[in-house]
Each structure stands twice: as C-alpha cells, then as structure tokens.
Amino acid sequence: MPLQYINEMLGLPELQLHKIVYMDAHQVHLEASPATDKQPCPVCHSEQYVKRDGRNKLRKIRHLAVFGRKSYLHVPSLRLACSRCSVGFVWSYEFVGPKQRYSRLFRLQTVEQALGSTAAHSARMQEAPASTVQRMHQEALPAESERLTEQAWRKAKTTEGLVLGIDDFAIKKGHSYNTGIHNLRGETMLDLLPGRKLEALRTYARQHPDFLALNPKAVVMDLAQAYHTWISECFPRAIRIADRFHVHGYIIESVQAVRKSVQSTLAPRAKAILKSHHRLLNPPADLLPEQSKAQLDLLLSFSPLLRKVWEWKEAFSRWYDYSPNVHVASLGFNRWCQQGECIDHDAVRSTLKTVRNWEDEIVNYHRCRWTNATVEGRHNRIKAYQRRHYFTRNRKCYKDGILIECNRHRSSG
C-alpha cells in the first residue's frame, strides 16, 4: 500500500511518512517527519527568526493499530532556536505530548476501554503493560469527571420541572454508605457525598451553593427521615415523593412475614411447597406466566390468611397503577388501609402504622409520577464498578470513577 494511504489511515496530517522501517506479523515500524519546515517560537510566536539547530535521537511513539498490528512511529526530535528571543526549544508534535511514548489517540482509546471494563482488560486488548494503562486511566479521570459533571449540572440548572432522586448505597453494608444526588429527567448523577446522616447532608448543602441554587419540582427518596428533613430545609416548595418501590418493599415484607407464620403450621409436604415457591407471592399476578399462576393458586389455598394478605398486596399495586389523580388516590389509600386493618397479624399492623405516617409522601406519587428505578439500576452499575476496581482507596479517584461510570452514556462530545 502506498505511504500516503497509510498516512491517511493513521489520521496524522502533521506528519509525512518516509518508509516502513520494519514489519512482521505483530508490529509495524514507520519512519516519519514533520510536514512543515518550521514551528513558531513559544515566546514571540513567530517563525521569522526560527531556524533548525540539529536533532536528537529519534522518538519511538506507540500509535493506534494498523493492519491488525501494533504500530510505532519513529519521529525526529528536532532542536530549534529563535535568534530574536535567544531561546532554544524542541519541536512540539500535536499527536503526542512532550516526553511521552504513547500518542494521544492511543491514550484516548486505551482509557475509553479501561473506563468500560478494567485497566487489566484494556492492557490485554492493547498489548501494553497494565501499569502503563493504569497510569493513563488515573491521569484521565479528573478531567473527564469534571467535564461530565459540569455537563450534568449545567443541564440540571436549565431543566424545566427538574426532578431529583436521593438515595444511598453501601460501601460496606451495615458500616459505611454514600449518598447519590441524581437528575431523574436528565438520567445523570450530579454528585456523590460520603455518609447518609442528617449532619453530613447539611454540611454538604452549606459547602455547595450550586445544589441550593437548583429549583426542583419534586424530589424522590425512600422513607429515611434524614432525607425528608434535609430536602424540606433545602427545597421547601418541592414535592417530596416516597419512592414507590421502597414503599412496596414494606408491603412485600409483611406478606412474607405472614407466609412464614402460616408455613410453620402446615403439614410437611405443604410446608416444603410453600417454602420453595415463596417468591411467587412478590410480583403482581398479571406478570406471572400461566404455569406460575397455577402454582400461586396452590400456595394461596393453604391458608385463608395468606390469601387475604396477598389480595391486600395486590390491591396496593392496583392503587399505584390506576389512581387517576391525587383526590381519588387519597380516597383509595384510606380504603386500602381499612382493608389491611381487617387482617389480624402483627406484621400487617406494623406496616400500616408506617405507611400511615408517610401518607402524604406516598400519595404525592400521584402528583408527579416519578420513581427511583433508574437510581437503583445505577447502584448496580456502581457496585459492579467497585468489584471491578476492588474499591479505590483514593477518595477523589473513587468519586471521579463513579461519576464517569454513571454519566458517560449521556455525554456529548
């Protein structure tokens, strides 16, 4: 193939290829030089008084693969001098940084692979040392995180009817947690703060005026009192919505508590069947296949109490799905609570006490129908990131990595 076509494949218009130095089944070495004769002086920015002053040894630069082989560019390290400024300098190439052995395009591709997987995987793909790829990844994190975060905040500030999602995820379950702030409309993660206690949340608000400058229409969160207190202080006019799936989790827990109490009273065969298929009680019946529906009918036939609490759970799902407005939803919520009061079980009474305490926040779902479902999916992404990177001791790198992981799919440019 003629050298000019190889030059076009490499995408380096500033270089002019001279010859193929060496090529085998795994790598190709190309000799090149600058396409121009002079370069402006870094002091006076003029080429008029610049002249070449010799050259050092060739620089060997790793570039993107060509023909399925690793490619290396051998370019001269030209010495230049400006007689006007009396300064000497070395030729600066656009495609590679000073004193670097990997081109910018190679670094960009390598970091992009590492962001989606691990440095070790990217190193295998590029046939480069893992330590080198790790260093490239760490160097690229701050700038990429800043770019994506700035983009996410700019969009949040200009979004009409902004809806925020607040939720925590575990670093070490039962010991330490982080709290994420999400733009549900923009499908981005705005920030990550350590802890989930009220004092930590208030400290964050004091230190970040950009957060207080937001004007959300609604904020979706679970039933943690700290979050509701914090949001009512920061955004008193925002609608506070109890996340549907967190609330539904309380109902399912009460169903399973009833199932366990019923299970202990059954014959061994019925007890084994109920225990092995207890998950059929959780999803809405409409989503089950026919075979599972038949199995569910068998489970419910074991106990009138179990059937009664399951029907109560199904009524709650229908209330969420079919209430047309807030007024009808409020009436339906009271009827559903009355239905639950007819069930004689401690778990049901405890759940009813909880949902009545949060009635306004639960009913507010019908004012602004948003949930934290995308946030929960993002938590799975974060947990996968933590496993891939075996956590990160450097807090800044840890935070930057998570923000990139959650926002890069929405980036432009």
From TrEMBL:
Q: Which InterPro entries match?
A: Transpos_ISL3, Transposase_DDE
Q: Where is the Transposase IS204/IS1001/IS1096/IS1165 DDE domain?
A: 164-399
- Matching Pfam families, A to Z? DDE_Tnp_ISL3
Protein name, entry field: Transposase
What organism is recorded for this protein? Answer: Paenibacillus durus (Paenibacillus azotofixans)
